[in-house]
From TrEMBL:
<keyword id="KW-1133">Transmembrane helix</keyword>
<keyword id="KW-0472">Membrane</keyword>
<protein>
    <recommendedName>
        <fullName>YggT family protein</fullName>
    </recommendedName>
</protein>
<feature type="transmembrane region" description="Helical">
    <location>
        <begin position="46"/>
        <end position="66"/>
    </location>
</feature>
<dbReference type="GO" id="GO:0016020">
    <property type="term" value="C:membrane"/>
</dbReference>
<dbReference type="InterPro" id="IPR003425">
    <property type="entry name" value="CCB3/YggT"/>
</dbReference>
<feature type="transmembrane region" description="Helical">
    <location>
        <begin position="78"/>
        <end position="99"/>
    </location>
</feature>
<dbReference type="Pfam" id="PF02325">
    <property type="entry name" value="CCB3_YggT"/>
</dbReference>
<keyword id="KW-0812">Transmembrane</keyword>
<feature type="transmembrane region" description="Helical">
    <location>
        <begin position="18"/>
        <end position="40"/>
    </location>
</feature>
Amino acid sequence: MESSNSVRTKPLYRGTQVVWYVLGLLEVLLAFRFVLKFLAANPTAGFTNAIYTVTQPFVAPFLSVFHMTKIQGSIMEWTTLLAMFVYWLIALAIVKLFFMGKDVSTPEAAVKLDELNK
């Protein structure tokens, strides 16, 4: 088995930290967008405008997937929730990809293959 002191362990750990940090930051921004739309925040207010501007490129690919639900001025922007879910899946896939590059010993690989073939 690969020791915890392997040359590749620290970069792998740091890489996963970066992916989760970037995802966390993006998810917070998108959550702000969702809540501001839902609470019918003033779009010309500085903070609201900044959040909408920063998050627009991240929600743009999803804008026509669902219709927005409008309730007395509030907007339920389902596409923002979809974007949050898709970006979480992408981050998960990237982290899994990182771990695919992890060094493994022959016995460890044999055990993992046996587990997969059950």
